[in-house]
Amino acid sequence: MTEAPRLTDRKRDAILAAAIAEFRANGFEATSMDRIALRAEVSKRTVYNHFPSKEALFADILVQLWNVSAPERELAYRSDLPLRGQLQELLAAKLRMLNDTHLLDLARVAIAAAIHSPERAQSMVARLGEKEEGLLVWLRAAQDDGKLRGADPAFAAQQLHGMLKTFGFWPQVTMGEPPLSAERQQVVVASTADMFLAAYDRAERE
Length: 206
Fold this sequence. Notes:
0% strand, 2 domains, mainly alpha, Tetracycline Repressor, domain 2, Arc Repressor Mutant, subunit A, Tet_transcr_reg_TetR-rel_C_sf, 76% helix, DNA-binding transcription factor activity, transcription regulation, 12 helices, Homeodomain-like_sf, elongated
C-alpha cells in the first residue's frame, strides 16, 4: 500500500505548483512570495520554511523540471560498444530535456530575470550546470579508454551542449520557435555526433 504524502510534502508541492504558475504568468520580478503563498493557500511563513528566498525557489523549480524531463539513468560509457551509438543516445536524451515545454517557459523567465541581476543568473546557471555533468563523465571515460583524442573534456562537453542548444533551446527561448519535432531532433543529434567525432574520435583521425 502506497503511503500518503505527508502534510509538509503536500504543502511543498502546492508551493512549487503555485510558484510555477506565478512565474510563468507574471515573470520573476513581478512575482512575490506573498502571491505564491496566496495561490498555494499557505502562509508566507510556510513558504519561507521551505524556501529561504524567491531565488532559491526559482532555482529549485528549474532543477526539478530538469530532473522530470531527464532519463531515469545517465548513459554509462561502454568500452565494448562503438562511440557513435553511445554518443547519439546521450545527445538524444539531452536534446529531449532541452525541448521540455515547461523548462523552456521558465528558461525565458530566468533570462529576463538575469538581465536585471547577473549575480542571480550565475547562481541559477550553476545549479543547472550540475545536471550537465553526465556528458562530461562519459567524455572523460572515453578519453581514458583511448577512444578520444587528448582534448579538455570540459571544453568538449561545452561544445556539444552548445551545438544542441543552437537548434533545440535558444531559438525556442529567444525567438518563440516551437520545440523540435522528433524527426528534427534525430537530424540534429546525428549531425552533432558526426561533427564531434570528426574532430575528436581517435580512430577517425588516424
